[in-house]
Structure formats: structure tokens, C-alpha cells
Fold this sequence. Notes:
Elements: E1 23-25, E2 31-40, E3 50-55, H1 58-69, E4 73-78, E5 95-107, E6 111-127, E7 135-142, H2 157-174, H3 178-184, H4 194-204, H5 209-217, H6 221-273, H7 279-291, H8 296-310, H9 317-331, H10 344-354, H11 359-375, E8 382-386, H12 393-404, E9 408-412, H13 420-423, H14 436-444, E10 450-454, E11 461-462, E12 465-466, H15 467-474, E13 483-484, E14 491-492, E15 498-503, H16 511-515, E16 518-521, H17 527-545, E17 553-555, H18 557-566, H19 574-593, E18 599-601, H20 607-610, E19 625-626, E20 628-635, E21 638-650, E22 655-658, H21 663-678, E23 693-698, H22 712-724, E24 727-728, E25 732-734, E26 737-738, E27 744-745, H23 750-759, E28 764-768, H24 772-777, H25 780-783, E29 787-791, H26 794-801
Parallel strand pairs: 2-4, 8-15, 8-16, 9-10, 10-15, 17-18, 20-25, 22-23, 25-28, 28-29
Antiparallel strand pairs: 1-2, 2-7, 3-6, 4-5, 5-6, 6-7, 11-12, 13-14, 19-24, 20-21, 21-23, 26-27
Helix pairs in contact: 2-3, 2-6, 4-5, 4-6, 5-6, 7-8, 7-9, 8-9, 10-11, 10-12, 17-18, 17-19, 21-22
Amino acid sequence: MEENTKAGNMNLDEIITDYASSEEQNGNSTRVLQVPTVALRGMTVLPGLVIHFDLSRTKSILAVEQAMMSDQRVFLVGQKDVEEDDPDYTKVYHMGCLAQIKQVTRLPENVVRVLVEGLDRAILRGFSDEEKNYLVGEIEIVESPLHLEGVAEGSTIEEEAMMRNLRELFMEFCSFFPRIGKTMLKHFDGTFSLGVLMDELIESMPVTFDKKQAVLEAVDLGTRYQVLAKILYEEIEVAKIRTELTEQVKGRMEKNQKEYMLREQMNYIREELGEDNVMSDAEQFQQELNKLKAGREVKEKIQKEINRFRSLGQGSAESSVERGYLETLLELPWDKVSKDNTDIKRAEQILERDHYGLEQVKERILEFLAVRSLTKRGDSPIICLVGPPGTGKTSIARSVAESLNKKYVRICLGGVRDEAEIRGHRRTYVGAMPGRIVTGLKQAGVKNPLMLLDEIDKVSSDYRGDTSSALLEVLDSEQNNHFRDHYVEIPVDLSEVLFIATANSTAEIPRPLLDRMEIIEVTSYTANEKFHIAREHLIAKQLEKNGLDAKKLTISDGALREIILSYTSEAGVRELERKIGEICRKAARQLLEQKKPAVHVTGRNLEQYLGKRKIARDKANDKDDIGIVRGLAWTSVGGVTMQVEVNMMPGKGEIRLTGQLGDVMKESALTGMSYIRSVSDEYSLPEDTFTAYDFHIHIPEGAVPKDGPSAGITMATAMLSAITRTPVRANVAMTGEITLRGRVLAIGGLKEKLLAAKTAGMKTVLVPKENEKDVEEISKEIKSGLDIILVEKMEEVIRHAFAEK
């Protein structure tokens, strides 16, 4: 039914325009009519049916009035979106019904009720271009066949089979909807044709208008039968499931009622025997409430729940739910806080003791401590540590908790997709419980712990709610002082909680959530940093874990560096720790089996414990080559070098891309080729270069998907090298995006990329000029031995990359 609009208040009698119906013949002698048209919301009219509906839109009312002034015929077509107020040709279905208006009744508030009879199916070819205040549709009437296609007139065997099958299905459907069956089953015994019967059936069924539209669009009787039969099958299955669910709920209610009566009788017997212990739990709750540190409003709410618990029977199901709710409320630390450490020197010592490097993170934590000591306020920032796996993000949070003398709570968000995991379940659900945030507070026992939200970029969403949106209130320092958990129902103050989140990448974190956090980058470790971390932390940790000490097992510095370079390939140190643990286990077995007094692991005997070297580092090519350029890429486990190869062969000017390249890299390749073609005159390229030759761009390791915006200049250089037959310097690596005009744009992950270039033995790295500030922030340890050249134009890239002939 249509909704009222502002235009519905106009005087319709004054704005009625003349309408002249016209018929025209197209090239195929198809009859096309121009008929006033009404777009219906949420309903479908079928031929042969009499139905009434209300109109409120001015356009629709004018169309009806114009039809009444001519031959009383109107075209009725359904809207795809019922909320659309001014539909055009693309926003309505193209199959509708040509109908005869039987009666028009004006109702209050400028509403018109129309009674129509469906005449014929018709296809909407478009709306008239003439400017009118109502829709005029150009329609083509569709002749509905009287018999199945291919069946001779008078041969009704197949039609009779369809009729009987529909009757059986409809009788089964009517067993769930008896009122419909009383009237419609009579139609099967009448003289209705198969097509009319099917239209009558779908109109009588309580289904959505889009299913009725599907029947309307099925002109052929065979197709219409298949559509209607499928709808009947689906509706019968839905009705069966609904009936089963209703019976289950009814049976459960009868069982609960019986149990309630029996429990009440048992309670009465206990009271008569003087064994009434119903009040014991309530008294215990009352004592805990008297000791609870909480505000007046919180205590009043808990007192109200205790009084309600007293009035419930001890054995009732509702009593057990209320008991669990009261226990949760009384265990929460409403106003209980722990005293924070304000000794900055002690905090600095703990951070330096537990972590090597990470200067930016340590500096930010110490700044927070200093501000908190001066302001004496409990407001805490929301910090997000972003970096590759194994770089120590989680252990940083533990160290921060120890340095601040805070309780530590870790909440892993990886894979959480239910909003109730954050906000809690409503108590009306069976098995309801508070969300993870409130549960973490209950575990901490104080309202100001350090709460680690681990893997915040791994949360997902489904039909149960958007988990990341639920975190918005938690991580907003302006509103989390009244965080409302669905289970607790009382606002919980989270303003004094120090939230630290961890993530591998900010790309997967929704923008509104990212805006509420302070991002601190935890970048990849250099080989030297890994060496110090292993020497100062990991070896001692694994020795203790495997029952050894420094006297029984020693690992030389050379062996440690060899493990880092030849057995691990990661941004962090997690795999490095595993390899040290593997050495410890094998050493423990040697100590017991061979009765050795001690085990010494060096670079020479390392293969006895870890096997052959597993990591073959990408090294610079031995000689300059044509069409081969070394690019740099960032991955979740650090930086890597990426070799781009281009071959040029006779063909038709096609470009082939292989190596599982993503859409962004494909676009970069096409952009680079367009740039080369635009500057072909500068390199004196033959005119048929791009029409008589094909270009094949390949990036090895074809099984590994690759994508990103920083390979533009690499592919462009490789293509130009292949076209001009100019070799590219083997010791040059590059990274940067390219534009159509040859500008070099900024990239991310520069530290990891420079590390990869240095490991591969590259001497020169071409970096976008816009990344100059990032280059300055990178430590000298990484930049030493690298000639970093900042480039702005593709001409500079080519000048530094091409070898001199």
C-alpha cells in the first residue's frame, strides 16, 4: 500500500491534465499502447483478479483519474524498492498487469481507494517522454497461451497432470492454512483453465509480492507451473518447521508448568516440616551488598534484585537465572581500584629489562606515566600496537602492566563475530552471560586494570551484529565511562581502564574504530636486533623451559647469527625462539643418552641440530640483464625482494600478466605501459613496437598471490628495458608507484623493504622523494651499506637503473 506524500495535499481536480491514448505499430507489427501507469508498493496484481488498494501519491492518483476520463484502463506495475517515492523505468519491474478500473472512492486525508480487475499481462517498454504530472507507460500486451506450448488444442493430459499435482500440493499447504483452503479448493472442481487457476492460487497465498511477481512474469504455462510449484514446496517446508517449533515450545511450557507445581508443593512440605532454607542465599547476597564498594544507584539496583530473588521459589528456573545475575553484580569492581606506580625510573628499568629496542613504544608509555603523575587523573589513552607477528606486541603489554603495577587482563578478539561477545547477552536468552569486557573486569577485581585487546584487526561481522561497531563505545574515552553491557544493564565505568590493542595491520581495522586509537608502529627487527633479543632473552627462556642451564648448553654467537640468516625468515622472533627450543630439546637428549657433561653449539655443528639450511636468501643477480628488475615488497612477515621479468615477442600488442597478480598490480603494469608509449619518441622506438609485439610480464613464485601499489616503477623499468634492449643494473632495487605522466608516488613499509634489499646484497635502492621523511627516521644500522636515491620522475629511475652501454 502506498504511503502519503506532501504532494497528496494538492487539489487534484485543478491539476488534472488531458490524456490522449495512442497506439502505434513498430517494425515487427507489435501493438504498443500508451496507458496511464501506477507504480505499486509491496503488491502485485494478476490478470483475472479483482482487488482494491489505496493510493496517496499525486502521480498515481492523477493516473487513475486520467484513466477514468478515457477507457478506464490503467497499467499496474510493481516497484522494486518500496521506499522509492519517484520511481523511474529502472526502479520498477518490467512485467505488469493491464487492469480495468471498477470503482474509485475518495477517502479522508487525500487518499483514493481503487477497485480494479486485472485484464492482461503486459510488458513495460518505457515511460512516455511527454511531460505530464503522472506516469504514462508504453506497454505491449502479452497474449497468455490457453494450452501448454507444443500441446495440441484439446489434448489436456499434461495439463491434467499439472492440475492434479497442484491440487495435492495446495491441499497440503491448506492443512497449515485452513481458511485459505475453504474457498480455493473449490476452484479445482470448476471450469477454470490452468493459467487462470495458477494466478488465483498465488493471489490467495500469504506470500511476499516478489514471489507473486515471479508468477506474473511467467507467461508460458509450463514455466508458470514450475515457478508456482517451487513456491508451494518452499511454503510447505517453512510451515512444517514453524509447526514443529510451536509444538516444541508448547511441550516445554507444559513441562515447566508441571515442574513449577511440584516445586511449590515441595516448598510447602518443607515449610510444614520446618526445613525452610529459601532465605539463606538472599541473606548471603545482602551481606555481600553491605560490604560492596559501589555508588548509590548501583546499590539500589542490586537491592531491588535481591528483593525480587526473595520472592521467587528456590527451585524455579527463574530463581537460578536471578542467582547468577546477582553473583555477577556483586563480583564486579564498581569502585574498587588499585594504586598505580608513579616511579618513572622503575617503569623504565622494567621496560628496558624485558625488551630490546622498541624505543618509540617505551617513550610513549613513560610519557603517559609522567602525565598521569602530574594530573592525578584516571583518564587513560587507548594505544594500538601495530606490527608483524612475533615482534613482541603482547609481551609489551605485560611489561607495561608490571611497570605500572596494574592488573593484567588479556582478551583475544581473533575470530570474534558475535556482538554479544562484547556487549553481553540480554538476560531473556537462555544461557545469557556478560560480555568479555565486563568478564575481564570481574577477573581483574579492580576497575583500573590494563586490558589487552589482542588481534583487534581479526574481528569480523555476521548476521549477529557488527563486533567492531560494538567496540566503538568501549574504546571511546569520551563515552566509555557509561558503558552498558546488555547482561549487567547497569552502566559500567571503563574510563580508568588502560586499553592496549594489538594488530598486524591497520588495513583491516574499520576507520571509525581506528580513529579512536593512538597508533604506535612496532616494526620488523633487524638481524642485529634479533641477535641481541635472542642472546639476552630467548636463550635464557628456552633453557629454563627445557630444564637446562648455561653450563649444560652454550650457543655461540656465530651459530646464533647463522640461525637468524639461514633458518628463519620473519619480521619478529617467534620462529627464532622455536629454533632455539629445538636445539635445547636435542641437547637435552644428548645429555641423557650420551652422558655428555655439556653441549656446545657452533656454526660448524649447527646442522646436526637443525638440519640443512632452509632459507635461501634472494641475492642480487650476478650480471646486468635485459627486462629483469628487482622490486621490493612488504608482507605481513617483513620485507621481501621481488624480481620482475618481461619478455617481448612477435604478436599483436597484447600484454600478458602472470604470477597471481592482484588488480592493483595489473593496473600498475597497464599504467607503466601507457607511460612508455607516451614517451616512445624520446627513445626512438619503431612505430610498430606496440602493435607488432606482445609483452609478457611475470613475477616468479607464481603460486603466491601478490598485490600492492608499490611495483609500478619496477614493472615500467622492466618493460622499457625489454623494449629498448637496455640491461638493468643487477645491484639496483626499487619501490614506488607510477602515474600516467611518470610521477613516482610514496609507498609504505619502507623499513622492511630496505631490510630486504640489504639482506639480498643490493647496493642501490630507489625510493620515492615523498618518502624522504621516512628515510630520515630509519636507523643508521639499516641504511649503512645502501645508496638510497630519492626519485620524483620516471626519467630519474631509468637514469639510475639502466646500465651504461
